[in-house]
Design goal:
Elements: E1 7-9, E2 16-19, E3 30-33, H1 36-44, H2 51-66, E4 67-68, E5 71-72, H3 79-86, H4 93-108, H5 113-143, E6 150-154, H6 169-178, E7 183-188, H7 195-206, E8 211-214, H8 219-224, E9 230-233, E10 237-238, E11 244-247, H9 250-259, E12 264-267, H10 291-294, E13 295-296, E14 299-300, E15 313-316, E16 323-326, E17 329-331
Helix pairs in contact: 1-2, 2-3, 2-4, 2-5, 4-5, 5-6
């Protein structure tokens, strides 16, 4: 079985190849994006998603904008592409960090457009390769928290579909299983777009790892009944004090885990740590389309004109987090991520 590659270069090297996650689990369809507009659309509509994968896709999208056919664009000509890509998903810090890296490289080579385009491609490839390595290290550290026979609860999708490698929280599962440990996973549906049931269950079944899907609202009872040994989730932005922004529904899960004395872990690469954000209430939370709630998977599920509150993320305070796993190790409270990663 071929490993999942959520985002990579196309075979001809002139496009960005993604697995269109909007169509899973019914269809496994790969698309090649040929322009920055197509990359922006893919990120906005969640064809490519997950904080690390978004950063990779944005970096590659900028490369597409730097060379349009036979025309090489000057650094000044990339301004619009930077802005459009940065605006696609405001909460995930990996996006802005990847673009900041690309902008720095562009400035260093702005005197020669051809040289700049080549340097941008090298940097985007480096971001992809670094993410793969970070995922592996997260998995190796995270696997030490998973005992043989563990029953694990996760939220949203934090596997290969969300990164350039084997994932963040799910990387710990993959490494644990590869080492011979028996692991069972409970996957929250993750409403309203069902990234847990559509994506995590698909990915784990594909890997032969036992997985059970449950409604988000059923997690509290599962934890109360002692059916879960640990929770592990991903992150889209981590403040310097350890507050974590992640897919909406993470915060109530952390509260319930604390209530029932179940360890609650967060796994993320250092590219998700934001030294410019001191605490969670400073994080801009993306508000998604009302129709994501009014129409779920194409079916009308609410009155057409009813007001909707649809944040994509919530913030889990640091005091509810047992440990944060990064590619640098396992971080225990009190957290201090004030130094740049």
């Amino acid at each position: 079985m071929q490993p999942i590659q959520a985002v990579t270069w196309s075979d001809d090297g002139d496009g960005v190849r993604i697995l269109d996650q909007r169509l899973l689990p019914e269809r496994e369809v790969y698309r090649v994006l040929r322009s920055v507009d197509e990359v922006c659309e893919a990120i906005k509509t969640l064809a490519v998603r997950g904080a690390p994968a978004i950063g990779i896709a944005a970096a590659m999208g900028l490369v597409l904008s730097a060379k349009r056919g036979a025309t090489v664009v000057s650094f000044e000509g990339l301004g619009g592409a930077f802005a459009r890509l940065a605006a696609t998903r405001p909460t995930a810090v990996n996006l802005t960090r990847a673009l900041d890296r690309m902008q720095k490289v562009g400035l260093e080579h702005k005197g020669d457009a051809g040289e700049m385009a080549a340097a941008l491609r090298d940097e985007a490839t480096k971001i992809l390769e670094e993410d793969r390595a970070m995922c592996r290290r997260i998995g190796e550290f995270g696997a030490t928290l998973i005992a043989d026979g563990a029953r694990l609860l996760t939220h949203c999708n934090t596997g290969a579909l969300a990164t350039g490698g084997i994932g963040t929280a799910l990387a710990a599962v993959y490494v644990a299983v590869a080492s011979g440990k028996r692991v069972e996973v409970y996957a929250d549906e993750t409403r309203p777009l069902l990234q847990g049931s559509r994506l995590t269950a698909w990915e784990l079944q594909r890997a032969g790892i036992p997985v059970t899907v449950l409604a988000d609202g059923a997690a509290a009872s599962l934890l109360r009944d002692g059916e879960v040994d640990l929770c592990i989730v991903g992150a889209d932005r981590i403040a310097t004090n350890g507050d974590v922004a992640n897919k909406v529904g993470t915060y109530p899960l952390a509260i319930v885990a604390c209530r029932h004395s179940v360890p609650f872990y967060v796994a993320a690469p250092t590219s998700t740590f934001d030294p410019a954000t001191s605490r969670g209430d400073e994080i801009l939370i993306e508000q998604r389309s009302a129709d994501e709630l009014r129409r779920v998977l194409g079916a009308r599920t609410a009155p057409a004109d009813v007001p909707v509150y649809n944040p994509a993320f919530d913030v889990t305070p640091a005091e509810l987090i047992s440990a944060i796993v990064s590619d640098r190790g396992i971080h225990r409270p009190p957290y201090d991520f004030s130094e740049p990663a």
